[in-house]
Automatic annotation (TrEMBL):
<comment type="similarity">
    <text>Belongs to the QueA family.</text>
</comment>
<keyword id="KW-0671">Queuosine biosynthesis</keyword>
<dbReference type="InterPro" id="IPR042119">
    <property type="entry name" value="QueA_dom2"/>
</dbReference>
<dbReference type="Pfam" id="PF02547">
    <property type="entry name" value="Queuosine_synth"/>
</dbReference>
<dbReference type="InterPro" id="IPR042118">
    <property type="entry name" value="QueA_dom1"/>
</dbReference>
<protein>
    <recommendedName>
        <fullName>S-adenosylmethionine:tRNA ribosyltransferase-isomerase</fullName>
        <ecNumber>2.4.99.17</ecNumber>
    </recommendedName>
</protein>
<dbReference type="GO" id="GO:0005737">
    <property type="term" value="C:cytoplasm"/>
</dbReference>
<dbReference type="InterPro" id="IPR036100">
    <property type="entry name" value="QueA_sf"/>
</dbReference>
<comment type="pathway">
    <text>tRNA modification; tRNA-queuosine biosynthesis.</text>
</comment>
<keyword id="KW-0963">Cytoplasm</keyword>
<dbReference type="GO" id="GO:0008616">
    <property type="term" value="P:tRNA queuosine(34) biosynthetic process"/>
</dbReference>
<keyword id="KW-0949">S-adenosyl-L-methionine</keyword>
<comment type="function">
    <text>Transfers and isomerizes the ribose moiety from AdoMet to the 7-aminomethyl group of 7-deazaguanine (preQ1-tRNA) to give epoxyqueuosine (oQ-tRNA).</text>
</comment>
<comment type="subunit">
    <text>Monomer.</text>
</comment>
<keyword id="KW-0808">Transferase</keyword>
<dbReference type="InterPro" id="IPR003699">
    <property type="entry name" value="QueA"/>
</dbReference>
<dbReference type="GO" id="GO:0051075">
    <property type="term" value="F:S-adenosylmethionine:tRNA ribosyltransferase-isomerase activity"/>
</dbReference>
Length: 341
């Protein structure tokens, strides 16, 4: 299967640069995965589309202020983009500077805080704080919310709240991109969902910078996915099994929740899983757990548009995306949503 099979033309003005004033005020495009039929809704209509006994599975990861602006000891500017925190002193990071960064280089922040570049692993560098400083302190003092590259403005204090789900768990901090399907839920909507008898479960996947990396091979089967850490516990596994036993649906909130559930069910039946995943879901994949998906719109030729195509069919997805473009839906992280059932 070719990468170009998942291409589409998106007018740049449809890429949402700001969140709407209210989280749940976005639009919702419902797509019936077997017929390809679409229906234009508002996101709050999700309550009418869910049935008592259904299970929503959310990713409760919390986004870190991963983008740090600093300078090299030589005086040149450098951007440190934390990909994964390894411990209080060490992290894997992308480094952006006018000149190539040498191993052993020192990166300086305001005051006494410094870090050094210790190694390189593929596209990432290993960095380590010195002078006893903790990474968490550095990020809180010097970090910015890591907005995606297609949002062309600088992050501001408003993004500290809005580029974070309302259910992000402080104990599950580590993502460098938000699980954006969850950004549409506010506390009032979550309370209404619970009152209707719709269950909720929480998994964790720390979204990595690799989520924005393009597919570089023409044959998508040759693409190697980046690694992301996830956790699915026994309680989630039990809820999934109970939901299906009752004849109700498991609906993932976001592609990261899909990757959690399907990774945990790699052997055919869902079981607890903690560790890295490189699961690549594209057409031909047989889903083991999910019956539906709430998701945002994804980039052309991306692994995520391939994932949703595996659930609803490539032609159905591309037709739905064209409908969304014609109807002026807002795309990507701060944009509108889809419900695939």
């Amino acid at each position: 299967m070719k990468k170009k099979d998942f291409d589409f033309t998106l007018p740049s003005e449809l890429i949402a640069q700001e969140p709407l004033p209210d989280r749940s005020a976005s639009r919702l495009l419902k797509l019936h995965k077997s017929t390809g039929q679409t229906t234009d809704l508002q996101f709050k209509d999700i309550l009418c589309e869910l049935n008592p006994g259904d299970l929503l599975v959310f990713n409760n990861t919390k986004v870190i202020p991963a983008r740090l602006l600093a300078q090299k000891s030589t005086g040149g500017k450098i951007e440190v983009f934390i990909e994964r925190v390894l411990n209080e002193q060490q992290a894997k990071a992308l480094l952006k500077s006018n000149k190539s960064v040498k191993l052993g280089s020192t990166i300086e922040f305001d005051g006494m805080a410094k870090m050094t570049v210790t190694a390189k692993q593929g596209m990432f560098y290993l960095v380590e704080t010195i002078n006893g400083h903790h990474l968490s302190d550095l990020m809180q003092q010097h970090g910015h919310m890591p907005l995606p590259p297609y949002i062309t403005r600088e992050a501001d204090s408003h993004d500290d709240e809005r580029y974070q789900t309302v259910y992000a768990d402080n104990k599950q901090t580590g993502a460098v991109a938000a699980p954006t399907a969850g950004l549409h839920f506010d506390n009032d909507l979550l309370a209404q969902i619970e009152a209707k008898g719709i269950q909720s479960a929480f998994v964790t996947l720390h979204v990595g910078a690799g989520t924005f990396q393009p597919v570089k091979t023409d044959e998508i089967e040759s693409h190697q996915m980046h690694k992301e850490w996830l956790s699915v516990d026994q309680q989630v596994c039990d809820l999934v099994k109970q939901t299906h036993a009752k004849g109700c649906r498991v609906i993932a909130v976001g592609t990261t929740a899909v990757r959690c559930l399907e990774t945990a069910a790699a052997n055919g039946e869902i079981e607890p899983f903690v560790g890295d995943t490189q699961i690549f879901i594209y057409p031909g994949y047989e889903f083991k757990i999910i019956d539906g998906l709430i998701t945002n719109f994804h980039l052309p030729e991306s692994t995520l548009v391939m994932l949703v195509s595996s659930l609803a069919g490539r032609k159905n997805i591309l037709a739905a995306y064209q409908h969304a473009i014609d109807e002026q839906y807002r795309f990507f992280s701060y944009g509108d949503a889809m419900l695939i059932v």
